[in-house]
Design goal:
Elements lengths: L6 H26 L10 E3 L2 H9 L6 E3 L24 H6 L4 E5 L4 H9 L4 E4 L4 H14 L3 H16 L8 E6 L13 H8 L2 E3 L13 H7 L3 E4 L6 H5 L8 H4 L3 E2 L4 H5 L5 H12 L2
Parallel strand pairs: 1-2, 1-3, 3-4, 5-6, 5-7, 7-8
Length: about 280
């Protein structure tokens, strides 16, 4: 074998040899690169609305536990149950070894404190408006590693919300969420914002509590034009028979509604547009 005696030729040959070696190494790297599996985040949801958000983001494969009230979509019923909304089982949650637990205040305050004591990360959901709900959806998307899906879901919801144009505005409305005692929604609540967007005016919107206890006389005095019963313990025919309520405009005009799915109103998540439209359709009748 003859070696080049010209220094220039030697350098040229060395250069091409080095180039070929780099190319072969690069191709080898492409063909033999080890497959590194992404670590799947393990999530437990104690909040039905967040369970719905997780499914809407396409991250239900991360959901290892939820509550008995997490019933939508249908697949959510198949997830391992850690208890009910008010009293989730701490041992069951810890046993699932979650990377993140989604909870809400104030009802789950005790379990949140216990989880923090155990150094388990907790995301506390407490939206007081549609806008804060959209921000939470974005935050959940980031936590679960799908920020783009979080952005696209919030944009889609915001677009749908902007298209909702109530025919009537500021119609006096009474929302009842419990019968004994009578409980309604105050001005600082998420549901108050939902009602406003549907064209209603909460007759108890001047109250600062989220869910204040009120008396029947106050409802009669404030005289709503529309009444929504958002709990299963009373029907409109029973409401009509309440003492003194025959004076209320909503009762006189038979504008009492007990047929709206409460989950569409109470759950700050992807189905809130349906909830607003359901309220608006009845307010506009």
């Amino acid at each position: 074998m003859k070696f080049p005696t010209n220094p220039a030729q030697s350098l040229k040959l060395l250069f091409y040899s080095l180039l070929v070696s780099i190319l072969l190494l690069y191709l080898s790297f492409l063909n033999c690169e080890p497959k590194i599996a992404k670590v799947k985040k393990r999530a437990v949801s104690l909040v039905p609305s967040i369970t719905e958000i997780i499914f809407a983001l396409g991250k239900d494969d991360c959901l290892v536990g939820n509550t008995i009230y997490c019933d939508y979509p249908e697949e959510a019923k198949k997830i391992y149950k850690v208890g009910d909304f008010s009293n989730p089982n701490l041992e069951k949650i810890v046993g699932l070894k979650p990377d993140i637990v989604f909870a809400t205040m104030p009802e789950q305050k005790i379990i949140i404190e216990r989880l923090k004591e155990l150094k388990i990360p907790v995301f506390v959901s407490q939206p007081v408006s549609i806008d804060s709900m959209l921000k939470e959806i974005k935050a959940i998307g980031k936590i679960l590693g799908v920020p783009q899906k979080g952005e696209s879901l919030t944009m889609a919801l915001a677009t749908e919300l902007d298209q909702i144009k109530p025919k009537n505005l500021a119609i006096p409305v009474y929302l009842e969420i419990a019968q004994t005692p009578l409980i309604t929604v105050g001005g600082g609540s998420f549901i108050n914002d939902v009602l406003n967007r549907a064209g209603g005016r909460n007759i108890f919107g001047f109250l600062t509590q989220e869910y204040p206890v009120i008396d029947a006389e106050a409802v009669i005095k404030l005289n709503p034009k529309v009444i929504f019963i958002l709990h299963p313990l009373a029907k409109k025919e029973e409401v009509k028979k309440r003492i003194g309520w025959q004076k209320i405009t909503a009762v006189k005009e038979n504008r009492i509604y007990d047929d709206v799915n409460p989950d569409l109103i109470f759950r700050p998540g992807p189905r809130i547009v349906q909830g607003i439209k359901a309220l608006m359709a009845r307010i506009s009748e």
